[in-house]
């Protein structure tokens, strides 16, 4: 981590705490060159795999496209929107890394 004051590369972590329901980490750091202290917040970035379409074209995963397609397909069926949301959550977890780098559309 670079020091925002003197731009030195060497810093040490003084304190770490989970924040935001455990989804991010707050770290208190100190520069080893100028001894200034600063705070960083680290959040894990979930990179979803690419979707392989039936014609072998790959496109980025789009949760809104999945949601609208499922709602359109199930609009005359007795399926609640909560069930659709739960299915989307399950699909997100099953396609999330490190399971695979790509998901089949069908």
TrEMBL record:
A zinc finger (unnamed) spans 3-34. GO terms for biological process: negative regulation of DNA-templated transcription. Binds 1 zinc ion. One of its GO terms (molecular function) is ATP binding. Keywords: ATP-binding, DNA-binding, Metal-binding, Nucleotide-binding, Repressor, Transcription, Transcription regulation, Zinc, Zinc-finger. Residues 49-106 form the ATP-cone domain. It comes from the Bacteria. Its cofactor is Zn(2+). InterPro entries: ATP-cone_dom, NrdR-like_N, RNR_NrdR-like. The keyword ATP-binding applies. Negatively regulates transcription of bacterial ribonucleotide reductase nrd genes and operons by binding to NrdR-boxes. Belongs to the NrdR family. This is Transcriptional repressor NrdR. It comes from Escherichia coli. The gene is ybaD.
């Amino acid at each position: 981590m670079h020091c925002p004051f003197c731009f030195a590369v060497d810093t040490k972590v003084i304190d770490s705490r989970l924040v935001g329901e455990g989804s991010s980490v707050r770290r208190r750091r100190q520069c080893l060159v100028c001894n200034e202290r600063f705070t960083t917040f680290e959040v894990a970035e979930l990179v979803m795999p690419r979707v392989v379409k039936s014609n072998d074209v790959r496109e980025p995963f789009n949760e809104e496209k999945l949601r609208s397609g499922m709602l359109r397909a199930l609009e005359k069926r007795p399926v609640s929107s909560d069930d659709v949301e739960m299915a989307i959550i399950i699909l997100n977890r099953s396609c999330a890394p490190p399971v695979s780098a790509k998901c089949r559309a069908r």
